[in-house]
Design a protein that fits this description.
It is built from six helices and no strands. The protein is mainly alpha-helical. The chain starts with a helix and ends with a helix.
Length: 93
């Protein structure tokens, strides 16, 4: 039983030697938090998270243009979602 828990949690032995595993970029995690804030109707926090994401995307990056373009498209879609949530009457028009 103890081994089962250790394997599911990554194992203390493996974690110590391999170091932390990061499967998502920080910008992806912020975008996830943004959507969570929207789901909770916490629009002020959602807006603040978008501002942080914008700040990150304005910095010069060593990443590929494809990743940057996808990130910008995600940012635009997030702004659109927040606007529609704040202006539900616009959806009915």
């Amino acid at each position: 039983m103890e081994n089962d828990i250790s394997e599911r949690e990554g194992g203390a032995e493996r974690g110590a030697s391999a170091g932390p595993r990061h499967t998502r970029r920080l910008s992806d995690k912020i975008l996830i938090a943004f959507h969570h804030a929207c789901d909770q109707s916490d629009f002020d926090v959602a807006n603040d998270l978008l501002l942080i994401l914008e700040k990150m995307l304005k910095r010069p990056s060593a990443g590929s243009d494809t990743n940057r373009r996808k990130s910008i498209e995600s940012l635009i879609a997030a702004h659109e979602r927040l606007w529609l949530l704040r202006h539900p009457e616009a959806r009915d028009s």
